[in-house]
Specification:
Chain lengths: 157, 288
């Protein structure tokens, strides 16, 4: 299939590449933009490791084709930190909310959206919100602890 | 886990979509939210020659109150509908049901029209469409037609849409005074497809139940209404629950699948549990 020129804004920078229509957004981010924080796990939307933000809302990078996102604003985990979600990252470290780290970028992006939508979530709400992100190391307890901790710290500020 | 190659067209108008189908027939596939299509492509369960992307066709993503109906554009995302004030005020069933559909990142992309056209027997929205008495508004090169939900879902992942027909909107009658909406399902895990689920819409008058529609998902090869159950419940005095009659009606109208994990019998039992929860809810709401 003929390659087509696709131009996306990724973390505020324009990235253009000629790719086949079948290239997913997650693969574009990894192999064309060379940002490897977005992880590719199940490739059918179940595991959540490839979660990124597309035009302000979270989406599965494996369930969008790069060509569909022409002109869209994409934000990946590399855009975290420097005040944007740095407290979430720090809390994950403090609470041992990761071991191998494969799920962590998707987990952070999902948790960040939750806290934007609902600054005072219950534990149950955190569990429900993160139910689409698999972690095979931690058992989730520590992840929920970390998110609850950040919610409280942000409220106190 | 990479799709086979395909061509891609970003439609700007419905006419673009019709032209693709004119040229490629059933080798063409509509791409809406992609949350069912892309997994199928990645797993190579589906291998179309061309994807026609309808995401940028204007005006397919509106929610409008038009007299007695709420018109929901086919491209409205699950999450947009779940948070819409118009929907909360006039079609509360959808708000309740959408909380059970997948996970936030998937709801941000998935569309109501896509879910209805996908016609997964375990999906929540087809059952809602049946319970609500929704009308599907469909367009094709040869014009437009309207299909009642009860004629739309015709089998396992099968609808009465012809190749080249596009679902453009759903028209849902607004909930009148004394209308009670109930949605519940039993799943192993939040966001998973249900083992059994129920959408019910009841009409009451002066505390008396006048009519009720029950639609089930995961209880057959498609979402199913249970007219026998409606007849049983509409004949019962308020507050009474005739368990044996309910179970007989469910057995008559539903045909739940048997799989390695959940037997048909278990699903029927769970459907009965949901009906009892629905009646308790309806009775308590009708009294107030
Ligand atoms: C991990 C995961 C979990 C999920 N869990 C659930 C769940 O619990 N419950 C649930 O209901 N769903 C679930 N889904 C599916 C999700 O809700 C999909 O969004 C939905 O089923 C399809 O909508 P879509 O817009 O993504 O459609 P697409 O995937 O783009 O399309 C689906 C089908 O409909 C056709 N189509 C789409 N729009 C139109 C149109 N306007 N006219 C004609 N044909 C059209 C397409 O050609 C395709 O055949 C899940 C998905 C994933 C990945």
């Amino acid at each position: 299939m003929m390659k087509r020129l696709v131009t996306l804004s990724i973390n505020g920078e324009e990235v253009s590449a000629a790719v086949e229509p079948r290239m997913t957004l997650a693969d574009f981010i990894r192999s064309e933009a060379r940002l490897t924080g977005t992880h590719v796990g199940c490739e059918h939307g179940v595991c959540g490791a490839c979660t990124v933000r597309v035009d302000g809302r979270t989406a599965r990078g494996c369930l969008l084709f790069a060509i569909q996102c022409e002109g869209s604003e994409i934000e990946t985990i590399e855009n975290f930190g420097d005040g944007k979600g740095a407290d979430l990252q720090q809390a994950f470290v403090e609470h041992n909310a990761l071991q191998c780290g494969f799920c962590t970028p998707g987990m952070l992006i999902a948790a960040d959206e939750l806290l934007r939508d609902d600054p005072s979530p219950t534990r149950q709400a955190v569990r429900e919100y993160l139910s689409g992100n698999y972690c095979r190391c931690t058992g989730y307890q520590a992840i929920v602890d970390a998110v609850m901790d950040v919610a409280e710290r942000r409220r106190r500020k | 886990m990479k799709p086979r190659t395909f061509d891609y067209l970003r439609a700007k108008t419905l006419a673009d979509v019709f032209a693709v189908f004119e040229a490629h027939g059933d080798e063409a596939l509509i791409l809406a939210g992609g949350q069912s299509v892309v997994p199928a492509l990645n797993m190579r369960l589906s291998e179309p020659a061309i994807l026609v992307d309808i995401n940028r066709i204007p005006e397919l993503d509106r929610i409008e109150l038009q007299g007695g109906v709420v018109r929901i554009g086919a491209l409205c995302r699950h999450e947009t509908v779940r948070r819409s004030d118009v929907i909360a005020g006039h079609v509360p069933l959808l708000v309740q049901a959408l909380a059970h559909v997948a996970h936030p990142a998937i709801r941000n992309r998935g569309t109501l029209g896509g879910s209805l056209c996908n016609a997964d027997p375990a999906a929540e929205l087809p059952a809602c469409a049946l319970a609500l008495g929704t009308t599907m508004v469909v367009e094709s090169a040869s014009g437009s037609r309207r299909i009642p939900a009860s004629d739309f879902f015709i089998g396992f992942y099968e609808t009465s849409l012809e190749p080249g027909e596009v679902l453009v909107a759903m028209e849902v009658p607004v909930a009148g005074n004394g209308e009670i909406h109930f949605f519940d399902e039993i799943a192993r895990r939040q966001g998973d497809f249900a083992l059994a689920g129920l959408a019910a819409v009841a009409k009451c008058d002066g505390g008396r139940l006048v009519s009720v529609r029950f639609a089930f998902h995961s209880c057959g090869d498609r979402s199913l209404l249970s007219p026998q159950l409606s007849a049983v419940v509409e004949g019962m005095p308020n507050g009474a629950v005739d368990g044996a009659a309910i179970d007989a009606a469910l057995k008559g109208d539903l045909d739940p699948p048997d799989d390695a994990v959940t037997s048909s019998e278990t699903r029927l039992h769970l459907a009965g549990v949901l009906v009892r929860r629905a009646l308790a809810h309806i009775n308590s709401e009708a009294d107030t």
